[in-house]
## 1
Amino acid sequence: MNKEMHQGKDEKFIPMTSISSGSLRKIMDDVYYFTDQIANVILVGKSKDDWVLIDTGLPEREDAIRNAIHERFGQDAKPKAILLTHGHFDHVGGLVELLEDWKVPVYAHELEFPYLTGEQSYPEPDVTVEGGLLAKISSIYPNAPINVEPYLKPLPADHTVPELSGWEWLHTPGHSPGHVTFYRQDDGLLIAGDAFITVKQDSFYKVLTQKTELNGPPRYLTTDWSAAKQSVEQLADLHPKMAVTGHGTAMKGDGFAEKLHQFVKEFDQVAVPDYGIYAPDQEH
Ligand SMILES: [Zn+2]
Ligand SMILES: [Zn+2]
């Protein structure tokens, strides 16, 4: 097995951004997130020496992540660990570079390991899927695996989250095989990756303005829609009070659980594409 770390070998420039790009925002006292271009990076913890980073954004954006960390925890702060919701290019972008510097463990679900150890590429993005411009140009998105094997560790089987007490991880596959969501029951906070998102990721305009609305996982990369639906059902059943997702603005407040339940009811109509390589029931 190749022990040398590397980013995906098909890294490409991502020509998009959003109006909120670059701002560090607070959800709870110990949870901040930073939207870099189109992807969210989450910082969980209260002090410089005791925090974790969840996901690492788009390729070649590690300096932007460092700036956000600097703003939150001061110069030279490094996390105790990095947690991954999944291994897509827009969630592991700065990972190799940051690890070379920090040398901290990276935790992910074992089903994502092939994509994080250089063994296997994700399926090609589906440029034919029903959706807007971002789906049409999704062939420019990298899908080759990165390799972070020296630092990679499986999330614990008992569903506890390393370095984060009071949190649990839930397997929420569909968008990718080993996709996970982090949940804190005390305040009902979900860190949901791309299990669902709060912006219409295949609309260029809505990504640009970050109009907040519940949406299914980004279509061009989602390969198992029935698992994706079950995952959102599982999350809605927790009656969460707020969520920060991989893309879009965090949602919080009265009625969030209700909105998520409603979204589950409409999932087949609003989230699942009518056509595309991975769309179900293509016969009719
Ligand atoms: Zn993804
Ligand atoms: Zn994503």
## 2
Amino acid sequence: MGFRCGIVGLPNVGKSTLFNALTETQAAQAANYPFCTIEPNVGNVGVPDARLDTLAKIAGSQKIIPTQLGFVDIAGLVRGASKGEGLGNQFLGNIREVDAIIHVLRCFENDDIQHVDNRVDPLSDADTVETELMLADLDSLEKRVPAAAKKATSGDKEAKAMASVLGQALELLREGKPARLTQPKDDEEERLFRQAQLLTAKPVLYVCNVEEESAASGNAHSARVFEKAKAEGAEAVVVSAAIEADLIGMDTEERLAFLEELGLHETGLNRVIRAGYDLLHLLTFFTVGPKEARAWTVHQGAKAPEAAGEIHSDMQRGFIRAETIAYDDFVGLGGEAAARDAGKLRQEGKEYVVKDGDVMHFKFNV
Ligand SMILES: Nc1nc2c(ncn2[C@@H]2O[C@H](COP(=O)(O)OP(=O)(O)O)[C@@H](O)[C@H]2O)c(=O)[nH]1
Ligand SMILES: [Mg+2]
């Protein structure tokens, strides 16, 4: 399906450093996985998940294949981007296409690296970026809302629902608030709202890029970002892009020693990837066998045939049932055969809503 997070932020805050670390480190780590950089600024990375290793060990799988998440390094945000300044239009188009936004904020002091406004102030930086995104949404809605309202007068149900959510979003933006505060009334409005692809409707993760010494505990700048995130119901993580860049090319042992020295338990990248994944309201299910243990991604709320379709469209088309074992049962009982004997292998049909951690095996006929 290909879920993507777009990395945005002002120039010189560490976006490309983070993006390169994400893709290069993962490329080296996932040696048995066909890593792909689709375009120079787009890369897919494996989502770290300890459960997959546990399942593979139990099943004696030869190969481990993590599920993937896409990242896009989106350059070109400057003040005035919403009016086409800099790479404005291209920038906005790139953001429109991603599912979630990773907003990198400069939280490190370093006189050698120029800040566009000659000061380190992540909250003000965040405002600058968010203002551009809100202006762009406002601009597009000022045109779309009257058109939608006109169409709604015909009595068409979908047109009415669209006019309602877009109208709500426009009100919010006029008050200087992001469109993500819009409250769709039902699933239909929710779907139409997503379809509208407003920039400020996308979920946001703030990444505080701090100096090396603050990677473990954050600093005063990142603390302010965390407060902001909390007030907005958004997520934030602390990373040092410089450390992540240093980790490129180290083997697992070197990496662990280096991280320990810095008081870190895992790479910041792992935390960014997982937080990005959480942001998208996704869940993971597994397929496990002697050949490979593999993780797959679907939206929360997806039913069994849709999950089957992630593996192959034939499996969705000819879906019969899904033999399903909960992760805890699979691990607790020690594998598929034992879970089956204990009556923990369930036969689930078309209406089954997939749960995070399900180990699944699809029966299909085409
Ligand atoms: N000291 C320090 N420098 C950094 C850090 N992250 C990025 N930089 C440097 O800041 C400059 C801009 O980084 P870059 O990733 O290209 O920023 P972008 O414009 O947001 O893509 C480069 O010279 C980086 O080496 C960091 O965490 N600490
Ligand atoms: Mg860059």
